[in-house]
Amino acid sequence: MGESIAMRVIQQYKTHFIVDPYLYATGQLVLNLPSFTTNDLQSLCYQAQTTFTSSQIILHLSSQIVIVGDLHGQILDLFRIIREFGMPDNTSYLFLGDIVDRGEFSVETATIIFALRVMYPDNVHIIRGNHEFAQLCSRCGFLEEVLEFYGSPTVFNAFVDAFAFMPLVALVDDDIVCVHGG
């Protein structure tokens, strides 16, 4: 059987997780990001959606977790966080939604987070933010970014379909309530 798309995504981004993102931000290194086909991303989104459907609407998590707020397509922040805290084989993460829109790398940020979720479903958790609703991410940059890169809304629709199955709340140690906002 061939290598899974999630594994390929992680492999192709691996060096980005260990390089100091400051070097990219200051132009000392050129940020060359991999790209994936429409079929690859549709497959990845479907795989992520499958992991969300096997989760409950309220996640019950342990306090040994890194909680990450709005990334909004800021891929260098994602690289910095993974570099600081490690890959999810040794670290648990909770992303509090709004992984897309506003930043210039929403597709790549969502792709990495979905790949991490597929590869490490017990250690990578994502709750849905308001920017994971089609009405908002179609107006705030994500759809435009997808159309610019892929030329059709197919990838956008695949992500939005997966977003619809994300949990809405996480309880950490049955004591701390984590939601995107409100």
Give an account of the 3D structure.
GO terms for molecular function: protein serine/threonine phosphatase activity. This protein is 46% helix and 11% strand. It is mainly alpha-helical. It has a single domain, classed as Purple Acid Phosphatase, chain A, domain 2 (4-Layer Sandwich). Strand 3 (93-95), helix 5 and strand 4 (124-126) form a beta-alpha-beta unit. The relative contact order is 0.18. The mean pLDDT is 95.
SSE blueprint and pairings:
Blueprint: H1 5-18, H2 21-25, H3 38-53, E1 58-61, E2 66-68, H4 75-85, E3 93-95, H5 106-119, E4 124-126, H6 134-137, H7 142-150, H8 154-163, E5 169-172, E6 176-178
Parallel strand pairs: 1-5, 2-3, 3-4
Antiparallel strand pairs: 5-6
Helix pairs in contact: 1-5, 3-5, 3-8
